[in-house]
Amino acid sequence: LSVHWPIRRISTEESSMSERSSRIRRAVAQWIEKADEDIWVAKLILRSEPVAAFSATFHCQQSVEKTLKAYLTLRQCEFPKTHDIGKLLELIQGLDPGLVTEIESCVWLTDYAVTGRYPGDIPEPSEEVARRAFESAESCRRFIGIAMEHVDEPA
Q: Which secondary-structure segment (H or E) carries 154?
């Protein structure tokens, strides 16, 4: 199973990079790797019968969250330990308001990070909702990938 990921992998082997730049690039690559894994798991779940809709939606949220954290890390913007996509977008708003306009539709996934872990806190998502979550996550990842390609090298 192959998942398309538009963000280019970042080499941490380049000797011309400063140590700080190298650390940032490694951290970004780690966030991307974790985001890739979550979207891959969501895709596997959506291909299964029956579809475990909550689990697929949860992994879509996790992929978006980690993708946003990769972007913030690349932009050298500190962020709190949070699963709240809206809070992460507030930080991105100060860096790239146009990007936020493109990806703010993913905020609804936040409910599936924490609240949705407890039975009865939110309605169980349907398979249709899980598929919409996957589309939202893929769209967010695409826009972030394009934005990351235009960020200058970390200093």
A: none
106-to-66, 87, 101, 103, 112 alpha-carbon distances in Å: 13, 12, 11, 6, 11
Cβ distance 143 to 70 under 8 Å?
A: no
Which residue type, as a one-letter code, is found at position 86?
Answer: G
Residue 88 token pair: 């992460």
Vertex 114, ends 98 and 27: CA angle to 5°?
A: 55
- Which alpha helices (DSSP H) does 75-150 contain, by range? 85-93, 97-103, 127-149
Convert the pLDDT of each residue in 39-65 to its tens digit.
999 999 999 999 999 999 999 999 999
Q: Kindly report the pTM of this predicted structure.
A: 0.85
